[in-house]
Amino acid sequence: MSRADKASATLLTLGGGCLDQGGPRGEPPENFVRLADVAPGVRQEMRYAGSENFMGRPVPGYCAGQCWLRREVAEALAAVQRDAESMGRRLVVYDCYRPQRATRAFIAWAADPADELMKAEYFPHLGKETLFDLGYIARESAHSTGVAVDLALIGLDFGTPFDLFDEASGSHFAGLSAEAKQNRAELFALMERHGFVNFDKEWWHFTLENLEGVAPHDFDVR
Ligand SMILES: C[C@@H](N)C(=O)N[C@H](C)C(=O)O
Ligand SMILES: [Zn+2]
């Protein structure tokens, strides 16, 4: 593990998103796995387990900075990582399975006009009450079913940072630099080769489609 990985793992396993509630609740279903067990080469920077996110604090349900996914999705990501490595690249994931209680916290946060702590960094041009209706955050997220993942390739410029809720994060935004456009095209081609579909409002958000038995969950990330 590199120094940067160790630092982010240490920070994120402290995840305060459930510590004040007496520890993790619920059990992961049998068809969910830790990405670290299936694709250890993927770097994990699980933003909602810490404070580096649009709420500016750990999000309920994230007791650890661990990426959990449906097994099929984790295995597909492992194949993406192998492919990326053959090109000298490495994936970093920012969000994976998301407990439903985290989404409930997002909804409550958006309804509180007093809490604008992270506006300049994450939604400088939008009122946060619009973020759900504009599609940037889902009220019923595919993340809660374990088939969605937010990610990037380390070290590449994608034109905007992860979770910048802005038209410039739209996958095919016309105002991108040539480099960012090329990097997004590389990421999309890599992910699509392994069955992932990008969400066109967010270059970082991908789902693996057509899995059976897809259902939302609310066990805590640990
Ligand atoms: C909030 C952002 N990272 C994201 O994942 N957005 C999609 C639309 C979602 O919430 O499912
Ligand atoms: Zn996402």
Layout of helices and strands:
Layout: H1 3-13, E1 32-34, H2 35-38, E2 43-44, E3 68-70, H3 71-86, E4 91-95, H4 100-110, H5 119-122, E5 148-153, H6 178-192, E6 196-199, E7 202-208
Parallel strand pairs: 2-4
Antiparallel strand pairs: 1-3, 4-5, 5-7, 6-7
The chain binds the ligand C[C@@H](N)C(=O)N[C@H](C)C(=O)O and zinc ion.
The site of zinc ion (ZN) has 5 residues, from β5.
Number of domains: 1
Which class of secondary structure composition applies to the elements? Answer: alpha+beta
Going by CATH, the architecture would be: 2-Layer Sandwich
Which runs of at least 5 residues are low in confidence (pLDDT < 50)?
1-15
Q: Estimate the helix proportion, in percent.
A: 25-40%
- Please report the number of helical segments: 6
Give the helices and strands as they follow along the chain: HEHEEHEHHEHEE
Shape: globular
Strand content: 5-15%
Q: What is the C-alpha radius of gyration, as a whole number of Å?
A: 16 Å
The top-level CATH class is: Alpha Beta
Function: Catalyzes hydrolysis of the D-alanyl-D-alanine dipeptide.
GO biological process, one term: cell wall organization
GO molecular function, one term: D-Ala-D-Ala dipeptidase activity
Enzyme class: hydrolase
